[in-house]
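Ticket #4471: structure output looks truncated?

Reporter: J.K.
Steps to reproduce: submitted the chain below (225 residues) through the standard prediction queue, then opened the result file.
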Amino acid sequence: MPFDLTYLLLIVASLVLGYGTQAYIKSQYNKFSKVSISSGLTGAQTARRMLDANGLADVPIRSIPGNLTDHFDPRSRVVSLSADVYEGRSVAATAVACHECGHAVQHARDYAPAKIRSLLVPAVQLASNLWAIALMIGIVLNFLGLIWAAVGLYAAVLLFQLVTLPVEFNASSRALAYISLGGYLPDQETRGARKVLTAAALTYVAGALLSVIQLIYILGRTRRR
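Returned output as attached by the reporter:
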């Protein structure tokens, strides 16, 4: 195969954006992890209050190992917070805890993009495992039909990433609404929480952008074949 400068540049861009966004979110999280909140509540206590305020007293909160492993599982309806967030009394812990509660509120309110994303999960798990294999076999065998199948599988992965964007932005909006509109945190601490959530959102934006670029590249190569 001839040397492909475009693909090399794509790999470099992926590494730069990937590591860059991860470094940025960690820097913002670490920065505001050192800023204590005036309420003195832990992330778990804050999450409990936000869930209760939204009529979700039956949604449990648990502590899990790891760093920034926080998530909400719509199947079990459990908010899982990493130990630093669960026990933390910082602006960062408050922001992350409320963000995950935002996902729980989405699930309870039947937020459409979140429902669509949940429906796409099984198909995307299959597509993400198969598209690269199908593409490589199609190229080796010069089987254009299999290459186009790989493109379709990759497009499904991209669709999932695009649907994820409004889900994540909306969860952060719900978190900030609870934090700020209720006067839960002073303005300065609210601005810090917004910076943490904005940094987290950038990782999803960067991932989606790279996927769009890669899909365009694959489509261009496929059409030339």
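Triage note (M.O.): checked the attachment and the full token line is present. The mean pLDDT is 89.
Status: closed, working as intended.
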